[in-house]
Amino acid sequence: GRYPAYSARVFREKGVVIVKDPGDDALLTNTVDFVSFSYYASRCASADMNANNTSAANIVKSLRNPHIDVSEWGWGIDPLGLRITMNMMYDRYQKPLFLVENGLGAKDEMDANGEINDDYRISYLREHIRAMGDAIEDGIPLMGYTSWGCIDLVAASTGEMSKRYGFIYVDRDDAGNGTLERKRKKSFWWYKKVIASNGADLD
User: Fold this and answer.
1) Are 202 and 196 in contact (CB under 8 A)?
2) Is the distance from CB of 58 to CB of 76 less than 8 angstroms?
3) CB 170 within 8 A of CB 180
4) Residue 49 clears pLDDT 80, i.e. is over it
5) pLDDT at 58
6) How far apart are CA 183 and CA 113, in angstroms?
């Protein structure tokens, strides 16, 4: 609802002049109703961000955290980081939160029976949902949660089909070959149960 205290100095030093009409400042009080955000992984930084100690994960240069597991693409799996992030965001904005993206990209493989037992995805989601529950217990208002994604698709971060996030497997490879046949993974049935219980049944 207002510019931060330091903005006047930043504008002055950068020669920025904001032209305002009468009543414009009052319009700033019309803020958003909630803050939506995505969370997949936490990141670490150091004064020594060299090639020998950085992670190639995603587009943001960061350190490998030796205290947490990582995905096949080097993204740190950090449910506690989600709880911390939610607390920090609410402390800053004082608005309800909505987690709109959260999931695990992995190379899913069919077993001999044609099943996809993606227990690693279930574990990832379970622990992140528990972390959201802990944040709610901390007093953070959470409006909702949507995982990424319901069905396998080309990963925006890498352009690969093999980096799968969905509860539904799609027969397609990185070169675009495949029948596009769909198959429900083990996580599909697990998540169906989670939805039906509003997050209470995570087993």
Assistant:
1) no
2) no
3) yes
4) no
5) 56
6) 12
| Structure token pair of residue 108 | 């899913």
- Dist CA 154 CA 156 (whole Å): 6
Share above pLDDT 70 across residues of the chain, in percent, rounded to a whole number: 94
List the structure tokens of 3: 């510019």
| Reported confidence tier of residue 173, pLDDT bands at 50, 70, 90 | very high
Q: Whole-angstrom Cα distance, residue 63 to residue 168?
A: 32
Pair of tokens at residue 46:
């150091």
Whole-model pTM?
Answer: 0.86
Distance CA 135, CA 130 (A): 9
Sequence-distant (6+) residues with CB within 8 A of 16 are 10
What pLDDT score does 59 carry? Answer: 57
Contact 135, 143 (CB under 8 A): no
**Rg of the chain, C-alpha, whole Å:** 21
Round to whole Å and give the CA distance between 132 and 9.
37
Local structure of 63: helix, strand or coil: strand
Q: What is the pLDDT of residues 123-150, one digit of tens each?
A: 999 999 999 999 999 999 999 999 998 9
> 3-state SS of 167-189?
CEEECCCCCCCCCCCEEECHHHH
pLDDT at 172: 96
